[in-house]
Amino acid sequence: MTSFTHPASAQTDRFVQERLPPPGQWPMLDYSLLPGLHIAPQANLVEVLFARAFQAGHAGRPMLRSDRITLSYADALDRVNRIAQVLTEDFKLVPGNRVLLRGGNSIGMALGWLAVVQAGLVAVATMPLLRAKELGEIIEKAQPALALCDATLREELQTAQSHGGTLQAIIPFNLMREPGCMAVLASQKDGHFTPCPTSSDDVAMMAFTSGTTGQPKAAVHSHRDVLAACEAWPRHVLQAGPDDIVMGSPPLAFTFGLGGLLIFPMWAGASVYYPSISYTPEAMVKLVKQVGATICYTAPTFYRQMAAFARQHGVPDLRLCVSAGESLPDATRQLWKDATGIEIIDGIGATEMFHIFISSTPDDIRRGAIGKVVPGYTAKVVDDSGAEVPRGRIGRLAVIGPTGCRYLDDARQLNYVKDGWNYPGDAFMQDADGYFFYQARADDMIITAGYNVAGPEVEDALLKHPAVAECGVVGMPDEDRGMVVKAFVVLKPGQTGDAAMVKTLQDHVKAMLAPFKYPRQIEFLPRLPRTETGKLQRFKLRQP
């Protein structure tokens, strides 16, 4: 493990630092597997990203695109500087203050996030579909001083603000010219702003988990964490370049989206397109073609739904497709490849680790596997005592790398970090060649009559039946077997969810998997419960 001598923190507001776990509960941070990593002890993430782009000659190249405007790197920096001036001069925010950001993926959201971090403040991005109660819980935990909010999403945030707390003001950040909006305030500034001289270990952001368990937590990341992440998966697996145009559906409030649709494109000198419409599978395919996008990020369910439209309309410029956020069924990967000729880059990451740590390039993919450990990280499959299990055995995933979990004021830190290793909570199997095969969330393994059944394996089998559009598989209590495998199935239009279909699907799974894995119960639903990022909420399926 590498040690550093750091300058004193530039963040005078110590709220976050004082609520981090005790150092003895922190993960070990290993930088030895990234020999090219050079992060100065004093480093501001946003300053480094723009400096890197300018030094590479990208100042005049496109950085942020929409159907209304395209901003070059120089244009974007000017706007980021002006917003930072508003935050520090007009609202007197000081380094370490938290700023809540609320909005969908847009140029305004991206500029706001970058300005907050460049000013030495702590960005607290939130999902646009959150309601007042959920926003109130975030406000109570993060205690932001200010919020930057899309004007169309103010109502729920204002309701949350009215219930009390530290939130002093809500500033609309979109491009409307209404009095008091960020565009008007920023237009009155000169754009001359010196980035806050943060220590690389100062806090840049806190990311609230998307809540598949219904109990969100705030993961804290420093400037160093995000810069180190840029040198891992983006450099060794994605390998984007300045000519790439990136699109995707993951929200910027989700670290998968923040990395893929802002930070990593900036690191590569590429550009990002943010749509003015809500994505549907067909709309995304059409925009990919229209914009000439070369890299796409979305969830497995969307790739499955997009495949027919990709075959119909074509995606001639698309070269890289990234999937994360939930398990990628092999059936979906093959469906997309048949439609486009493109191998999906699968990956597993975590909000707590910032981004992807197991993945493979398109040339190194093994069917059924997520991939190999990403350079910069070390991963192993262990038993309940933390001892590594033999290859081919199922166990819990443990990871160490240049990023790691630090929760804000949360006793669940002890569940995630043990003996310096991060435990994302997933059950995996690793083969003799080092490929990792996802089994299930560790608490989602189904033990039925003494057999271990991984829900995603059964889901993959069901998805290979032509009548199935979506499905989720969980274990349900049973007196005789302890648990039984139950499938919740969304059928394609024109299909009937009756007893005959139940038997058809059960026989289909029996023909593909060991007999004990077939779903003894099948329930048909019009839709599955998912988070805003597309993750299946299995805990809701288990509720009566």
The average pLDDT is 91
Which CATH architecture of the domain at 229-441 is right? 3-Layer(aba) Sandwich
Largest sheet: 9 strands, mixed
Q: Give the low-pLDDT segments.
A: none
CATH topology of the domain at 229-441: Rossmann fold
Overall geometry? globular
What order do the strands of the largest sheet run in, or round the barrel if closed? 2-1-10-9-11-12-13-14-15
What does this structure look like?
This protein has 16 helices and 26 strands. Strand 13 and strand 14 form a beta hairpin. The longest helix has 18 residues, at 73-90. Among the domains are: 229-441, Rossmann fold (3-Layer(aba) Sandwich); 445-541, GMP Synthetase, Chain A, domain 3, CATH 3.30.300. Helix 4 packs across helix 5 (154-162). It is globular. It has 544 residues and is α/β, with parallel strands linked by helices. The N and C termini lie far apart (47 Å). The chain has a nine-stranded mixed beta sheet with strand order 2-1-10-9-11-12-13-14-15, with helices on both faces. Helices cover 30% and strands 22% of the residues.
Topology:
Layout: H1 45-55, E1 62-65, E2 70-72, H2 73-90, E3 98-102, H3 107-118, E4 122-126, H4 132-142, E5 146-149, H5 154-162, E6 169-172, H6 182-187, E7 203-208, E8 218-222, H7 223-230, H8 233-238, E9 245-248, H9 255-268, E10 271-273, H10 281-291, E11 295-298, H11 300-313, E12 320-323, H12 330-340, E13 344-349, E14 356-359, E15 372-373, E16 378-382, E17 394-400, H13 413-416, E18 417-418, E19 421-422, E20 426-430, E21 436-441, E22 446-448, E23 451-453, H14 455-463, E24 468-478, E25 482-491, H15 499-512, E26 521-524, H16 538-541
Parallel strand pairs: 1-10, 3-4, 3-5, 5-6, 9-10, 9-11, 11-12, 12-13, 25-26
Antiparallel strand pairs: 1-2, 7-8, 13-14, 14-15, 16-17, 17-20, 18-19, 20-21, 22-23, 24-25
Helix pairs in contact: 1-9, 2-3, 4-5, 10-11, 11-12
